[in-house]
Amino acid sequence: MSRWEPNTVERLQDAAMTLFHERGYSNVTIADIAEHAGLTKRTFFNHFPDKREVLFAGSSALEERVEGYILASDREQRAIDVAISALAAAGQTLSRYSEGARLRRDVIDSSPELQERSLIKLASLARVITAGLVARDPEVRGATLVAESAVTVFGAAYSAWADSPTSDFPEHMDNVLAELRTAIVAASPAPR
Amino acid sequence: MSRWEPNTVERLQDAAMTLFHERGYSNVTIADIAEHAGLTKRTFFNHFPDKREVLFAGSSALEERVEGYILASDREQRAIDVAISALAAAGQTLSRYSEGARLRRDVIDSSPELQERSLIKLASLARVITAGLVARDPEVRGATLVAESAVTVFGAAYSAWADSPTSDFPEHMDNVLAELRTAIVAASPAPR
Fold this sequence. Notes:
Two copies of one chain form a homodimer.
Chain A: H1 8-23, H2 30-36, H3 41-47, H4 59-71, H5 79-92, H6 101-109, H7 112-136, H8 143-163, H9 169-185
Helix pairs in contact in A: 1-2, 4-5, 4-7, 5-8, 5-9, 6-8, 7-8, 8-9
């Protein structure tokens, strides 16, 4: 099997990335993507509801892995540790996308429409983490805040990783969390 | 001047909030809002580009106040303190909206479309804070992470404040920041 025939979803993703890069996101149609992949528009719509989703194909699988990790985690672990570990572990599977990671990030950064979809995906990920933390420990405090902060760390770690996709993703998570801790810890109360 | 004639923007906002509450967001048209406010659709479009924006009318003013506060801040202050103080100070002017704050939050929570717009507004606020922190101190480290965390705190503080809108907004900011600090500080590195 050649590089271009692994499976339909990947062919569509590869075609979309190539065309977005060459022509700019807004100048590419779904018909263009399907044609470039040697498939039909109908096949595209069997896999993606719209043009934007082709860039976020892995997001449900990521959410499922994160949720599974949280539910299986040691109950003694602190919520922030669980959330960060879950995202670090799930994020390691991003290596499958390493070749196109920087291009994908740059395409998203170039389009307000894609930035919106990215925000929605990250908010959804934070909700999954919040629900997982609560299911794991109904007494947990500040689950939403922990989940949103963990996702903020994930976003920054992802961006750093996309710049050098052969690097270790969990290490980026650790580095960003350390940076956040340094930035937040000694903060004084807001003046009145 | 009666409560219903302070100015056009406020009349449209009040009408929209009333109708969203009574009928649900998706069942209200712009024509309904204009009619309820005793105005025309054309007047509505003079002030808002679409139905969603009527709920976010104060967001540009909020951004301007936050930016002004950051640029005027003491250069000795840490970035997180500046960002939190700016949001606490700007947020105090939310008291003008205190009567409808909980209703507004519940309307937004009821509609995925409005949640998306809210995410976009918060992301825009984070970008304004990042740019302000960099303009104030080009050597600042982790400005994006600080800005995004401050906006996470703002979101949680806003939600807590909306539950009891006569309470002190900056106090909510302090409480949430303290909660975030407690949650993040002792976190250990992610396991490999």
